[in-house]
Design brief:
The complex is a heterodimer of chains A (about 500) and B (about 325). Chain A is of the alpha/beta class and about 500 residues long. Chain A is built from 18 helices and 24 strands. In chain A, strands 6-9-10-3-11-12 form a six-stranded mixed beta sheet, with helices on both faces. Chain B has a single domain, classed as ABC transporter involved in vitamin B12 uptake, BtuC. In chain B, a hairpin with a 2-residue loop joins strand 2 and strand 3. In chain B, helix 1 runs parallel beside helix 12 and helix 7 packs across helix 8. The chains are: A alpha/beta (about 500), B mainly alpha (about 325). At the A-B interface, helix 1, helix 10, helix 11, strand 20 and helix 14 of A face helix 8, helix 9 and helix 13 of B.
Chain lengths: ~500, ~325
């Protein structure tokens, strides 16, 4: 292998209670395209943050041009020529292309007046744009550009910084096929000019086309590498999975029955031209797996009345319903435990009691006045039932741990009459003990005849907790799995949009 | 009474004691009655402003509403000879209607409260001036019909000005609404975290619009009280800056402009503090030209002191939480 430009040696990053990266080593040579793969939560983002200087590793060395660093700062990373093209683009829509490329380091004129030399800035940007073969100009406002075009602006910015390593994080997740092909051409051209690229993607096809080498992260460890000629789908998937899952499964006490929630031809704002069809039976836990951005959360928000449906039908208990607002959903017994519990699940500054009774406050009121005793009693009963660790129910939610906060969010809904409960990443950031309690509670609810839809990116959770799994891919359900067919391999196959049988042969 | 309100009471007492020592006239009956009267007048609409501020919004048009509703009221009562209960009802309804318009523009048209109510400030002032051709309107002679209303608004019982009694009644009602009712709970929830409130099935738009309507109602009520206090309305200056007094009282009383915080008792105390400060400027012989400067300084000092207290409290809460929690929330997903 040619001389390495950048090398990570035994990088470890631990957060309290969690090891995000463990002994990861990686080297990147000039003009090399390294494909980085791994499941959600495997540690890819943390690794890239270490490279960008955003996160300091707990131990390990970063070597750039034969100089060792214990950590990088953001300016260090920039000086070393490490540039990012993010999943979410970080551009100023109100400025033009040239201003975005040179943001923070504008060429100046006018001496002490420090005016921006717009003409020179545009002249500097124009050749970069020409090199990328774009169809807009340096003075085009970014607001007028499509996502693919904006991405090219980010690349131009990287080039203007004399980037030697460009990290692309899911660069094609919102691109069309033509745009993707164009991006792959740009990557080939950059490589020919000696720029190294770290290409993070779930789209194995693209990796196969553009990567010289593939490395795989799993649970924070580097678990394997493939040379150019070894890259194929089956090998990559095998690397991404392949750990033993602990059994979390609590079998149902009684069989699931129809009459839960049936969704047909539902179109959501995230993927307006895709249709979702799925049914959650009473008494079952349906796991909803899929990659980040596959439309799972939007489906949840649509069922709960936050995002408007663009078409299709929802049936609850055999009766067609319309959900226009969370109020409608709640009135029918559809409850959502949202992904971001601090922002959407709780009013953090309010007490446990106030949070628990908020969705159903009228039940505790007489003549519009809240009966403080009644609501406190409910909060105490629920917080005992869920074993919320707190001195009392007057404690503000903000002072609870993540697991206990999530229990309070659950308590909100358990004090009511649930028919369908949607949990979006129910145990993210929650410690193992509380996780087990939440799983047990989900099972208890299911056994009471509630239909449970659990969105999760945690493979262990999806496979361990669900009675059935639906997998979503780009806004549609790409397949259902019964327990007998549960495997990381199968879930992943469906999540990246491949048919199960095709994979078995590959 | 929370710690915040207790602090305010102490501050008022200390300032009062110092002023009384320097100039004993501060605690004379005449001065106290006069102050109570002003506290009543300003407190009424400050409570409305406080509700709006708790939603995270702002109401800038109160002073202009006073001018517009004031001239309309005088026109109805004096020029057209409409019975006072009807005229009073019309003004209260007018206030609610203006608040409803603000609420509609803010929640349905998604305009910023500052912009909506700033436009209200300009429009109502202009409308009031046009309505009377910029002329001052007064009661003139011979309107015995409104004698009852004049007594109700500007009179006294047992030596206590009716404005102050009105404030006590309104404050008591609003304290129940804000601190005991379902609506009050919703108001705080929406002000603190609108998204979580929506996710709990609360119709946040309706809660916010209602706050502007209540503020409008109290502005209408205050408009009538103020007309009887000033006895005339010069539409170009009547009620100028009053919305700023209200905002100052609410902020001094512990409302955060970020929303979700504040209490009726706090707002009333904020009003008292402001009036005591005004009075003190007069009694201590401080040049009245400095009045605004003193007021600004008092508010600034109050808010700074409150921020320090808040920081200490947050630190206490964080310590409490740190014991229970070993947050794994920092983990990159």
């Amino acid at each position: 292998m040619s001389e390495s430009l950048l090398e990570l040696r035994s990088i470890t990053k631990t957060y309290p209670g969690v090891t995000a990266l463990s002994d990861v080593s990686l080297s990147v040579a000039r003009g090399e395209v390294v494909g980085l793969i791994g499941e959600n939560g495997a540690g890819k983002s943390t690794l890239m943050k270490v490279l960008g200087g955003v996160v300091a590793p707990s131990s390990g060395r970063i070597v750039i041009d034969d100089v060792e660093h214990a950590r990088l700062t953001v300016p260090d990373a920039m000086r070393a020529g490490i540039a990012f093209v993010h999943q979410e683009l970080n551009l100023f829509e109100n400025l033009d292309v040239a201003a975005n490329v040179y943001i923070g380091r504008e060429p100046l004129t006018g001496g002490p007046l420090r005016l921006v030399d717009t003409a020179r800035m545009r002249a500097l940007v124009a050749p970069l744009l020409a090199r990328l073969g774009v169809d807009y100009r340096a003075d085009t406002p970014v607001a007028a550009l499509s996502i693919a075009q904006r991405q090219r602006v980010e690349i131009a910015k990287a080039l203007s910084l004399d980037a030697r390593v460009i990290i692309m994080d899911e660069p094609t997740s919102s691109l069309t096929i033509t745009e993707t092909n164009r991006l792959l051409e740009v990557i080939a051209d950059l490589r020919a000019h000696g720029v190294a690229i770290i290409y993070i993607s779930h789209r194995l096809d693209e990796i196969k086309i553009c990567a010289d080498r593939v490395v795989c992260l799993r649970d924070g460890r580097m678990v394997g590498a493939l040379a150019r000629e070894e890259i194929d789908h089956a090998r990559m998937i095998r690397m991404m999975i392949g750990r033993d899952l602990k059994s979390l499964y609590l079998p149902p006490q009684r069989p699931a029955e129809p009459g839960g929630c049936d969704v047909e031809a539902l179109r959501t704002i995230a993927f307006p031209d895709r249709q979702v069809a799925l049914s959650v039976r009473r008494g079952e836990i349906l796991g909803l797996a899929g990659l980040v951005g596959s439309g799972r959360s939007t489906l949840a928000r649509t069922l709960f009345g936050i995002d408007p449906p663009l078409g299709g039908s929802i049936t609850l208990g055999g009766e067609p319903i319309e959900v226009r607002s969370p109020r409608d959903a709640i009135a029918r017994g559809i409850y959502l435990i949202p992904e971001d519990r601090k922002r959407s699940g709780l009013v953090l500054e309010m007490s446990i009691t106030f949070n628990v009774t908020l969705p159903d406050l009228w039940r505790y009121a007489r003549l519009g006045l809240v009966d403080a005793g009644a609501e406190q009693k409910t909060a105490e009963i629920q917080s005992r039932r869920l074993a919320v660790k707190t001195p009392n129910v007057q404690t503000p939610a903000i002072s609870l741990s993540g697991g206990n906060q999530q229990k309070v969010v659950l308590a909100k809904w358990l004090a009511m009459r649930p028919r369908l409960i949607i949990l979006d990443e129910p145990t993210r950031g929650i410690d193992v003990g509380a996780k087990g309690e939440i799983y047990a509670l989900m099972r208890e609810l299911a056994d009471q005849g509630v239909a449970i839809l659990m969105i999760s990116s945690d493979m262990e959770e999806v496979i361990g907790v669900s009675d059935r799994i639906a997998v979503m891919h780009e806004g549609a359900i790409s397949g259902f799995l019964e327990r007998a067919d549960f495997s990381e391999h199968n879930v992943l196959q469906l999540a990246i949009g491949q048919k199960l049988h095709a994979a078995a042969e590959a | 009474m929370g710690k915040k309100e207790l602090g305010l009471v102490l501050l008022i007492l200390v300032i009062g004691a110092v002023t009384a020592t320097i100039n004993p006239r501060f605690i004379s009956a005449v001065n106290l009655v006069n102050m109570a009267n002003l506290i009543g007048l300003y407190g009424l609409f400050s409570i409305g402003e406080g509700l709006v501020i708790i939603t995270g919004g702002i109401e800038l048009s109160i002073g202009s509403m006073f001018a517009l509703l004031g001239v309309v009221f005088l026109d109805l009562l004096v020029e057209r000879g409409i019975p006072w209960p009807v005229a009073l009802g019309a003004i209260l309804l007018g206030g609610v209607a203006l608040g409803a318009i603000h609420g509609f523009l803010i929640t349905r048209m998604k305009l910023q409260p500052f912009v909506v109510t700033l436009c209200g400030l300009l429009i109502y002032r202009g409308a009031a001036r046009y309505y009377t051709n910029d002329a001052t309107m007064g009661f003139g002679y011979g309107n015995e019909g409104s004698g009852t209303l004049a007594w109700l608004t500007a009179g006294r019982s047992f030596g206590v000005p009716h404005t102050f009694i009105a404030l006590l009644i309104v404050a008591a009602i609003m304290a129940v609404v804000l601190h005991k009712s379902v609506y009050g709970r919703y108001l705080y929830a929406v002000g603190k975290n609108e998204e979580a409130a929506r996710f709990s099935g609360i119709n946040a738009d309706r809660v916010i619009a209602a706050a502007y309507m209540i503020s409008g109602l109290l502005a209408g009520l205050s408009a009538v009280f103020i007309v009887f206090y000033t006895n005339s309305v010069s539409p170009s200056s009547h009620g100028n800056f009053y919305e700023l007094y209200a905002i100052a009282a609410a902020v001094l009383g512990g409302c955060s402009l970020r929303g979700g915080e504040g209490s009726i008792l706090g707002i009333v105390h904020g009003t008292i503090l402001l009036q005591v400060q005004q009075n003190l400027v007069n009694l201590l012989g401080i040049p009245s030209s400095l009045n605004f400067a003193v007021m600004g300084t008092v508010i600034l000092a109050g808010v700074l002191a409150d921020r320090e207290l808040q920081k200490r409290r947050m630190a206490a809460v964080a310590n409490m939480g740190a014991k229970a929690a070993r947050p794994a929330a920092a983990v990159a997903a």
